[in-house]
Design goal:
The chain is an alpha+beta fold. The protein folds into 2 domains: 37 residues, no CATH class; 91 residues. 31% of the residues lie in helices and 27% in strands. It contains 5 helices and 9 strands, in the order H-E-E-E-E-H-E-H-H-E-E-H-E-E. Helix 4 crosses helix 5. The N and C termini lie far apart (38 Å). The mean pLDDT is 88.
Length: 164
């Protein structure tokens, strides 16, 4: 259509799925199946990490999420700011943990690494950029406020800031 202006579209989950750079936390080769993560118990089978049980004698290798946790190298940051945060801190943290539990049940590599208080508010780090995006979006949907995303393609890193 001539003269039709395209509206602003926030970053979507599907945009984060396109791997534009090499992620050093993904295996460079196919792991033998089944492979058990000795840290969390996730099992690599049928080409992906899932929750389940591995047979005795299964190959062992650390999953990408546990590898990131061990290295203290998050893929996502969610910064929470504002007076509203201080007034509803427990409720907001509960929403974040519930969202993580729901995602982690289906996707073992999506986990919150840490939630720490900072001078500006609360900083949550995640093992996956998608989880950081989804948590920030869930906060915005539930409580409104201002939401910003900064995605660094070269480092496969998402920084989300939510304030109210």
């Amino acid at each position: 259509m001539k003269g039709h202006r395209r509206e602003f579209e926030p970053i979507g989950r599907e945009q984060l799925l396109q791997e534009l750079v090499h992620d050093s936390y993904k295996a460079g080769h196919k792991l033998p199946e089944p492979t058990l993560c000795p840290d969390c118990g996730a099992v690599f089978q049928v080409g992906r990490w899932v929750w389940g049980t591995a047979p005795a004698g299964a190959h062992e290798a650390r999953c990408p999420a546990c590898h990131r946790i061990h290295d203290k190298y998050p893929a996502g940051f969610v910064m929470l700011k504002g007076a509203f945060l201080q007034q509803h801190r427990d409720e907001i943290l509960h929403l974040m943990r519930n969202h993580e539990a729901k995602e982690k049940a289906e996707h073992p590599l999506q986990r919150i690494m840490d939630i720490v208080d900072s001078a500006d508010g609360i900083l949550a780090t995640t093992t996956d950029a998608h989880l950081a995006h989804d948590i920030a979006h869930a906060l915005h949907k539930a409580y409104k406020g201002e939401l910003e995303f900064h995605y660094n393609k070269e480092d496969n890193l998402l920084r989300a800031t939510w304030a109210r």
